[in-house]
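Hi there. Long-time user, first ticket. I'm pasting a complex I've been working with (about 636 residues overall). I'd like to know whether the download I got is complete or cut off, because the file seemed smaller than I expected. Thanks.
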Amino acid sequence: MRNPIGPLEFTRRGWVRLWLLAVFVFLYAPIVILIAFSFNQSRRNIVWTGFTTDWYGRALNNASLIEAFTNSIMIALISTVLSVILGGLLALGLYRFRFPGKPVLDGVAALPIVIPEICLGVALLVFYARVGWPVGLPWPLNLSQVIIGHVVFSFPFVAVVVRARMEGFDRSLEEASKDLGASEWQTFWNVTLPYMKTGLIAGALLAMTLSLDDFVITFFTSGPETITFPVKIYSMVRQSVTPEVNAASTILILFTVLLTVIALKFQKPSEGVG
Amino acid sequence: MSNGVPIVRFENIEKSFGSFKAVDGVTLDVPNNSFFALLGPSGCGKTTLLRMLAGFEHPTSGRVLIDGEDMAGIPPNKRPVNMVFQSYAVFPHMTVRENVGYGLRVSGVPRGEIGPRVEDALRMVRLEAFADRKPDKLSGGQRQRVALARALVKKPKLLLLDEPLSALDKKLREDMQLELVRLQQEVGISFVIVTHDQDEALSMADLIAVMNRGKVLQVAPPWDLYEEPNCRFVADFIGEMNLFEGRMLSADGGQARLDLKGIGLVDVPWDYPATSDVALAVRPEKMRLYREEPELGWVRLPGKVAQVAYFGDNSQVFVETSQAGRVVVLRHNQSRSRDEPYRTGTDCWVAFEPTDGIVLSD
Ligand SMILES: Nc1ncnc2c1ncn2[C@@H]1O[C@H](COP(=O)(O)OP(=O)(O)OP(=O)(O)O)[C@@H](O)[C@H]1O
Ligand SMILES: [Mg+2]
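Hi, the file is complete. Here it is re-exported in full:
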């Protein structure tokens, strides 16, 4: 016999299920189609003509695509590390210290989040031209312009996430640590940092994702030598949309999903930290 | 520890937060190997005083000495004291064993020594069975023990406890009170405990300092504090008290004659010079209830029972007297009889011996 539906058992109501289904279709259908058509034999993305993995071969043999992919990964890794360090320190400083002008800094730090990317891109372009940023450096130094651009817009996201995490921190933990004989640094390393870790990982994920798929700012700051994956895809699509693009995108999706899974694994041991 | 030097000495300590004086001229000694309680109402500066010992606050003026050594400029991690925090502050990402070993690890105790000392500390607070658990799998009382073990394992000269029992239920609190007293005797160092619970202070401490508004009013052993409070605030704060206001007419030869409002002339022991406005303070358990006017040389007041508060082992009987207002009398419930002779509305007499009262001039 079926139990009556409880007031909070929303997922057992028919219309709620339909609604959920609609939401999922809306969210994921484009991605599912993208992946499905990367296995399509036809050059056109409209009709299914048969299964093949040729496009993956093509994509992997496309030297300029691979180069763009490597650039993207390199940029994402370096800018994530820098963003996490800068964002984490900013969050810690804002959480920890009281100083004149703190509210101002608090507001200014979040500015890159709200400034339209296009403006940031133009600003960076002008800035690099103005200071005469060296060009034609060997790889990966030639990526520095893009990396700096990415750090500028992603470290505030890290700061915001870490800051939110620190709101729940019990300061007497730090006092207890010092009381037990730990120095300032030992306290940070053993007590504060483990608590921040969840926020830092979440922030890193965010920064990594933002960097991997950023188009606008990269478009303004990259040169012919430093094409990234999204920019490359854009130029490929402008010529013609082949399943090769689908295949490349699928690889990128796979890559980010993998990263997320790894990050979540890392987070596991600190479960219950509160 | 040199003999005779108190483990803690506060010399004229003042602490202001902005224009607000949280601690106002405290001079206080905590003797070696004692269980010392700081007792007072909320906001009177107890925690602030304790945090100055731990090094988390610095006095605005005055000196703090621990074992004869001036603590000015010595950071918390270099002080020979450890603290049990009100929130316990047990590290959530470490197991019980790691928590207890933390203080030893960060202060560079050799690895081989840490293990046995941690096991000893865990045994002392009876947590051996929980050594590998994370704090979120512990009850409040167990977390409290972790905090205790973590502080004691460092062998401090002084243990500070900030309202360590306030988050526990009554039964557990009573168990922990006994446990703390046992621990203090076992480790043989001074414990300074902050509490606003007078019963807790009376039952655990050897010496109690009563504070109000940043000042220490009286420092005394439990008996003295209860039976010989030195001012109205202490008398009223510790236990229940009936206060009869009046004037002192004369004082000599160890005796004073008082004229109490509504009662008249009484003679009480008094070894000090005469003062004018005084109050005679009488504890509820030193008062007796009678159905008829008793034939005694005591102070006798007719009245009517206004209210009875039943506590099981005893009852507080509030009597509205015509002469001296409302007084409270403690009655032990010595028989199981349901026929309580003093119900609300009963006419009765309250009597007490003036020598059981305390003369208060402040
Ligand atoms: N950091 C601070 N800044 C400003 N005022 C403070 C600060 N710390 C304490 N005070 C004030 O000092 C007074 C004493 O505080 P304290 O914490 O010592 O009280 P307490 O006796 O421990 O009270 P409770 O029993 O409520 O814990 C309070 O009025 C409090 O508001
Ligand atoms: Mg307090």
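A couple of notes from our side: Residues 137 and 143 of chain A are 9 Å apart (CA to CA). The radius of gyration of chain A is 23 Å.
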